[in-house]
Amino acid sequence: MPVITKKPHVLVVPFPQTGHMVPHLDLTHQILLRGATVTVLVTPQTSPYLDTLRSLHSPETLKTLTLPFPSHPLIPSGVETLQQLPLQALPYMFEALSRLHDPLVDFISRQPPSDLPDVILGSSFLSPWINKVADAFSIKSICFLPINAHSIYTMWGQEDRSFFDELETCTTESYGVVINTFYELEPEFVESVKTRYMTHHRVWTVGPLLPVKAGANRGEQSSIPPEKVSAWLDSCPEDNSVVYIGFGSQIRLTAEQTAALAAALEKSGVRFIWTVRDAAKKVNSVEDDNEDVIPVGFEERVKEKGLVIRGWSPQTMILEHRAVGSYLTHMGWGSVLEGMVGCVLLLAWPMQADHFYNTTLLVDKLRAGIRVGENKDSVPDPDELAKVLAESVKEDLPERVRLMKLREKGVEAIKKGGSSYNDLDDLIAEMKISKCGKENV
Predict the structure, then answer these.
(1) SS3 track for 301-368
(2) Is pLDDT of 285 > 60?
(3) 416: helix, strand or coil
(4) In angstroms, rounded to a whole number, what is the distance separating the alpha carbons of residues 327 and 399?
(5) Which of 72, 188, 381, 403 has its CA 20 to 30 A from that of 364?
(6) Belongs to which family (predicted)?
């Protein structure tokens, strides 16, 4: 009799921060498309991130496990995502989430054998306790990292890694690692991660992970309806004439930085869309209210040229629109890939963490972007920044040409037969094999 191969059941445990959660769910979508059954662990506030996937997949193949967010003395009640906290609170978030270990073990132990997961596809940030859950049930723990191999190689090579040391050790000890990059972008760093830090070949590069195409909102609502944003872009007569400014879900500019950027936009005369954090939504946040405050009168003065969006914005749609030519970004890796896929010039203002390594890779090594800022404390000179903004919407910049060549390689990688497409297939094949080396049937 022929062997009937069981579809893998994957338990997905994302880290509750937009830059981590969104690409993790984009990866989940690809796994679902390849026939797997998936259960995603969320807390009440992060459950809406699944709405897009729920609209595309049946409840038989996409299941939700909602557990209460564990309380922590240094995390305000009602806060369940890192973007509601300063980055310095990251260790507290790790501590709180580690307390999901016992309720998750309890949940799995109550499942019939036929419903046990074959794999836990968890965030690398959660690997210390996810690995223990996987070991308790003799299933695989595979870590997802929403960054590139250059950043991994650089960060893991540092001597002083503080509390990240345990995370990196547990990641390397997992069954395998999935990275949101493509091999052709950084082959030497992919190979270096394999040979220097891993003891096996199971490193899968599956990027650029494209957003699930089922609506503009991905977990939150925009202050301006996406259709109005699209109509505004449609009204722009020239292609590549708009600068998009966005600093992700974690970064907030100071009042001084905001004023300098506003002045530069006015001086430049370019069309722009600027996404700022919404102070009105800081209900459970511990952030300073004196941040991201648009100067009085600015919006009225630039109303013919610019659009200011507060809170969430339909970023992917904006970056892929023919009118947008450049992107002033903090260089978070997800934003870099979205800008690359959207064919826009990257204007790099790295702020923290891996932003600096991404800027080193894209700007210094690959010369496919322009540096305009230095760190989270620097304040740009409005006159100098205005010149860069005005230049950035020109077609013939060499950095734009280089980025487009990298984009072509990324698009090829995710097509059938490409390196990332094949790695996704290999990942699913590994999920079908038990830890003892036999195929699950």
Answers:
(1) HCCCCEEEEEEECCHHHHHCCCCEEEEEECCCHHHHHHHHHCCCEEEECCCCCCHHHHHHHHHHHCCC
(2) no
(3) coil
(4) 13
(5) 381
(6) Belongs to the UDP-glycosyltransferase family.
Domain with 122 in it: what CATH number? 3.40.50.2000
Distance CA(33)–CA(201), nearest Å, equals 24
Give the number of other CB atoms < 10 A from CB of residue 319.
Answer: 21
Position 311 scores a pLDDT of: 80
- Pairing type for strands 119-123 and 203-205 reads unpaired
Task: Give the 3-state secondary structure of residue 440.
Answer: coil
Q: Could you report the per-residue pLDDT of 234-258, keeping only the tens digit for each?
A: 999 888 999 999 997 778 888 889 9
**Same domain, yes or no: 230 and 363:** yes
Q: Which domain holds residue 379?
A: 226-410
User: Same domain for 187 and 306?
Assistant: no
Contact 277, 292 (CB under 8 A): yes
Helix (H) or strand (E) holding 123: strand 119-123
Same domain, 241 and 181: no
Same domain, 344 and 426: no
CB 82 within 8 A of CB 90: yes
Report pLDDT for 438.
Answer: 52
How much is the pTM? 0.89
